[in-house]
Amino acid sequence: MNGTMKQAMLFGVEDIRIIEQPIPDPGPGEVLVKNRISTTCGTDVKNFRRGYPLLKPPHPYGHEFSGVVAAVGAGVEHVKEGDRVACHNTAPCGRCYYCKHGQPFMCETLTYCRGTYAEYVKVPAPIVAQNMFVIPDSLSHKAASLMEPFSCAVYGIENCPIALGDFVVVNGAGPIGLMFARLAVLRGAKVLVTDMVPSRLETARRLGVWKALDLTGVEDTVAAVRALTDRERGADVVIEATGLIQVWETSVKMARKGGFVLLFGGTKAGSVLHVDATLLHYSQLTVKGVYHTTPAHVAAALELLKLGVISAEDFIQNEYPLDQLEAAIREHASGAVIKNCIVYD
Questions:
Q1: Do the Cβ atoms of 6 and 120 come closer than 8 Å?
Q2: Separate counts of helices (H) and strands (E) for the chain
Q3: What are the pLDDT digits (tens) for 262-285?
Q4: Do 166 and 277 sit in the same domain of this protein?
Q5: Are 309 and 283 in contact (CB under 8 A)?
Q6: Residue 169 belongs to what domain range?
Q7: Can you point out the beta strands (E) in the chain?
Q8: Which CATH number covers residue 101?
Q9: Which residues on adjacent β-strands are paired with residue 319?
Q10: Distance CA 42, CA 332 (A)
Q11: Whose CA is closest to 173, among 336, 31, 29, 282?
């Protein structure tokens, strides 16, 4: 395709630059998408603040988006030029040890789509084949851009043994925490969300949680949460969604005997989890780390978005042009919003 486009590149810590690039042509199995919406993400904030060890700067930036197919490569059949699409940012290989053992979330050779803060995005063939979907006119591009993070919460919640009426604690009311909270509500749980940002806690209330607890100034967060459970026994299920190692540790202590703890928020490299071995052993706790998602859960997330299980209005607050990406990222990092979006029209 002729012409140039604007694309964000991360040149280093807190160094975002918008550069001109040739518009790429899609190869066999690939699709070129004209971007409509890119959403900010906690991972983007982490990369902005401290870099990403697996990528050498400068590198393309961003991974959540939705747009319209501008061109398709040879062999692409299920999407065509002009289709509105939702697209995940990864796809498993289907050939490695983990994929063959039913664990595609641990794929050794994931294909990535990076660089979605751009006017055009070339989507790799494995992602086109597995995780690109045509979306109906009833689903906005804003809502469709939530498919990637929402699929992670959908996968995570399926790892949690939540029964009707269970007491579930979600620590962290960022985008992923709120998605977990909404899904737990739909599974019939009594959901408590904790955070220290009032606006995020208010969003949790709108999503139907039983209680939203502000932990600002609370010295003993474990005691504060357990006090809200029957006979202070602790929660049936605790979900950690902050990525702070100290919250990982307090989350384990919030579970009842025989309870389940899901540790989802990605911590800073080198973080070490300290757990009381006596507590873990005699309380027979199940503590599970969960990361990423699977193609099946991506598809499920899209269906839930079509049903309106979560809305763009609750999760995406402000719009910015690409040239103001840094301002959008900084506002996200401040906690003043759940997410922001970059618009291209």
A1: no
A2: 13, 18
A3: 999 999 889 999 999 999 999 999
A4: yes
A5: no
A6: 160-289
A7: 4-12, 15-22, 31-39, 59-60, 65-72, 84-87, 90-91, 111-112, 120-123, 132-134, 167-171, 190-195, 211-214, 235-240, 255-263, 286-289, 318-320, 340-343
A8: 3.90.180.10
A9: 341
A10: 8
A11: 336
Residues 266 and 320 in one domain: no
> Are residues 189 and 309 both part of a single domain?
no
Q: Hey, what are 105's tokens?
A: 């979330």
Residue of 84, 45, 86 lying closest to 62 (CA atoms): 45
Classify residue 3 by its DSSP letter. Answer: S
In tens, the pLDDT along 112-163 reads 999 999 999 999 999 999 999 999 999 999 999 999 999 999 999 999 999 9
pLDDT for 57: 87
State which H helix or E strand residue 271 sits in: none
Shared domain check, 120 and 95: yes
Strand 120-123 vs strand 31-39: parallel, antiparallel, or unpaired?
A: antiparallel
Give the phi and the psi of residue 23 in degrees, each rounded to 5: -70, 125
The single-letter code of the amino acid at 154 is V
Identify the three-state secondary structure at position 120. Answer: strand
Which three-class secondary structure state does DSSP give residue 206? helix
